Amino acid sequence: MFKTIFFDQSCVVRLLIKTYLMFRSLFCKFSEKNTLGQLFRSTQRMYSQTATELNKLPDHEVRSWLDSYDTVLTDCDGVLWMYNNAIDGSPDVINRFKEMGKKVFFVTNNSTKTRSEFLEKAISLNFHMIEEEIVSTAYAAAKYLKNRNFQKKVYVVGSSGIGKELDNVGIRHEGVGPDILQGSFQDLVHNQFVPNDEIGAVIVGFDEHFSFPKLFKAASYLDNPDCMFIATNTDERFPIAGKVVPGTGSFVRCVETAAERKAEVMGKPNPLICEGLFSDFKIDPKRTLMIGDRANTDIELGTNCGFQTLLVGTGIHNLNDVDMWKKSVDPNDKKLIPDVFLPSLGDLLKYMT
Predict the structure, then answer these.
(1) In angstroms, what CA-CA distances link 342 with 29, 57, 269?
(2) Do 292 and 311 touch, CB atoms closer than 8 A?
(3) Per annotation, catalytic residue among 8, 59, 70, 75
(4) The pTM is what?
(5) Is 77 among the residues known to form the active site?
(6) String of b and e for 6-26 (b: at least 16 CB within 10 Å)?
(7) CA angle at residue 80 from 205 to 300, to 5 degrees?
């Protein structure tokens, strides 16, 4: 009797195992051909920090990668356009993304323009965008203060883009424009400058009129620990044909040194710049792609937020830089390694038909 029961139980166990293996085999075959399989694979981060060259993969693998995200965030300068010219193929790729049903957002550290000014430029270069799909650091800084019910006045070391975005949310400000040293700095310190008691925040962005008086005033206001200190971004520099344009980060470091304080940074790679995208548009990090040309802002933002990442070679960084980071023992360098690489965003178009 006991032998019979044992035999019956073992038969049942073997039958269950055989059934499980059969269904697993069927599921694997089904997954290769069916959207359910695509959906399952899409929850995984493909090519994680391998700098895989997309243009060297079989077409079907690139198309599978295209299916792995629903939202696209992209930098602008060096990815979509260079100065006032679109980079070849980039408008077609962005517009095709939207035709495919993907959400697309321009996320830029450039604080010199408002969202409406960026939109005007995008439309003129044939990008089919709307203002709500553009996130700039000037806008992010103004929204950051507005969301925190800021009621005082802002001292701005930066351009008119910051001033206009503050105007748009009803926040008063001063400081935009030239402020050159008149006479001696002793006269500035002891006679000319009278601190404005209404100042409750200092914002530092790109400022072509950066000067000693501006540095002095910003540091003086920030000597008050209750004064908020905001930086739009910390991009260090922009090399151009044997010359170097100092970036916003150069100005931020000056003010931080003089004030002996660290700024709250709005721009990439700080996830703060995506605050509105998470709250308003409910983007899913695992189904989001970040595209950029600068690894220590664009790609690192993607790493910090858990996005997929694509580095393009039309701007600051390229595969030579990536090879250096791969060999590095510094864990911070590893954050700069993208999932995938393309020489140009326009190279993606042939896989999107």
Answers:
(1) 31, 11, 21
(2) yes
(3) 75
(4) 0.83
(5) yes
(6) eeeeeeeeeeeeeeeeeeeee
(7) 60
Distances (CA, A) of 274 to 73, 74, 144, 149: 10, 12, 11, 19
Q: How far apart are CA 264 and CA 271, in angstroms?
A: 12
User: What is the Cα–Cα distance from 126 to 158, expressed in whole angstroms?
Assistant: 29
Q: Note the pLDDT tens digit of each residue in 87-124.
A: 999 999 999 999 999 999 999 999 999 999 999 999 99
Which two tokens mark 16? Answer: 């269950």
Six token digits for residue 70: 């629903």
Asked, as a colleague might, if the bond just before 213 is cis with ω within 30 of 0, I would say no
Catalytic pick among 8, 67, 70, 77 = 77
Beta strand 85-86 with 81-82 is: antiparallel
Question: Do residues 289 and 45 make contact, with C-beta atoms less than 8 angstroms apart?
Answer: no
User: What's phi and psi for 53, nearest 5 deg?
Assistant: -85, 110
In SS3 terms, 161-179 reads as HHHHHHHHCCCEEECCCCC
For 204-234, what is each residue's pLDDT tens digit?
999 999 999 999 999 999 999 999 999 999 9
Other C-beta atoms closer than 10 Å to the C-beta of 56 total 9
| Spatial CA neighbour of 345 closest among 101, 75, 109 | 75
- Alpha carbon 193 to its chain centroid, in Å, reads 38
